[in-house]
Amino acid sequence: MSWNFAAYSSIYQSDHFQLLREALKAEIEDNYINLYHLLSLAYNPTSIGNIKNLIQEGNDTDISLP
Question: What are the distances in angstroms from CA 35 to CA 12, 14, 39?
């Protein structure tokens, strides 16, 4: 993920790398999905889903554990 972020940040303003930029952005989104799935295996899946919503959508769902 860090390599994708570094590559994307170095070319995101360039007009010459449109296809590469789109591919990296799609891969970053896929990496986030995989990361949330892996975290839900180790932690409470509901809490991970709430954290994901908080980060991506700004949803203010209570993320504390019951």
Answer: 23, 28, 6
* The two structure tokens encoding residue 41: 């295996």
Cα gap 51→45, rounded to integer Å? 10
Q: What is the pTM of this model?
A: 0.66
pLDDT in tens, 42-54: 888 888 787 788 7
Long-range Cβ pairs for the range 60-66 (8 Å, 24+): none
DSSP class per residue in 2-64: HHHHHHHHHHTT-STTHHHHHHHHHHHHHHHHHHHHHHHHHS-HHHHHHHHHHHHH------S
Using only C-alpha atoms, the chain has a radius of gyration, in whole angstroms, of 15
